[in-house]
Amino acid sequence: AQSVTQLGSHVSVSEGALVLLRCNYSSSVPPYLFWYVQYPNQGLQLLLKYTTGATLVKGINGFEAEFKKSETSFHLTKPSAHMSDAAEYFCAVSARTGGGNKLTFGTGTQLKVEL
Amino acid sequence: GAGVSQTPSNKVTEKGKYVELRCDPISGHTALYWYRQSLGQGPEFLIYFQGTGAADDSGLPNDRFFAVRPEGSVSTLKIQRTERGDSAVYLCASSPQRTANTEAFFGQGTRLTVV
């Protein structure tokens, strides 16, 4: 069985500061990894995903994440926060075989950006 | 083109009643997923369709929950004898392929409140 742990249900940063949202997974086989963002009153939107190849993946809106197999982590970062980044962020995994794209989500991290 | 559409956006029902939630996936997407998101939690998988058939219904919590996709496009999630614990946001997602590394596109959800 797979699981996802997101440390910190709420993270607050100043505008222009580094954003770091943590995600660790548990899986017998390294899964596919995703970050989704949910803005108020909107559906979940894919930020980025890791499937294979280069372990540093870049996504939309200046976000990136690095897959570290030895640490079973997939932390999300952005060098400089913007007010528009305030949203809820979900890390998710899917099994590489047999599950379609059935996603297992973490509990989410609410990002607040302050002036 | 249009994204994933879910109707109604909000549904309030009395305990014990029957409800139906509808999902219109993106045209041409063969895979369709239902998730449930309770307050303060990440989305939890309910059921996955590939075409008309339910490929994986392991997430349905009990036999009060049922979903159909008779023509391989629109899907309906049906909940019988609703309970207050069923209150949540029900999310639908679709993807063009069944493979695990394919992006899933989410609708805005139906907020179900059982009173």
Structure description:
The complex is a heterodimer of chains A (about 120) and B (about 120). Chain A has strands spanning about 5, 10-15, 20, 25, 30-40, 45-50, 55-60, 65-70, 75-80, 85-95, 105, 110-115. Chain A is an all-beta fold and about 120 residues long. In chain A, the strands form 3 sheets. In chain A, strands 2, 5, 6, 10, 11 and 12 form a 6-stranded mixed beta sheet that branches. In chain A, strands 3-9-8-7 form a 4-stranded antiparallel beta sheet, with no helix packed on it. Chain A starts with a strand and ends with a strand. The mean pLDDT of chain A is about 95. By secondary structure, chain B is an all-beta fold. Chain B has no helices and 11 strands. In chain B, strand 7 and strand 8 form a beta hairpin. Chain B is globular. At the A-B interface, strand 6, strand 10 and strand 11 of A face strand 4, strand 5, strand 9 and strand 10 of B.
Structural class of chain B: mainly beta
Strand content of chain B: over 45%
Radius of gyration of chain B: 13 Å
Poorly predicted parts of chain B: none
Helix content of chain A: under 10%
Write a brief structural summary.
The complex is a heterodimer of chains A (115) and B (115). Chain A is an all-beta fold. Chain A has no helices and 12 strands.
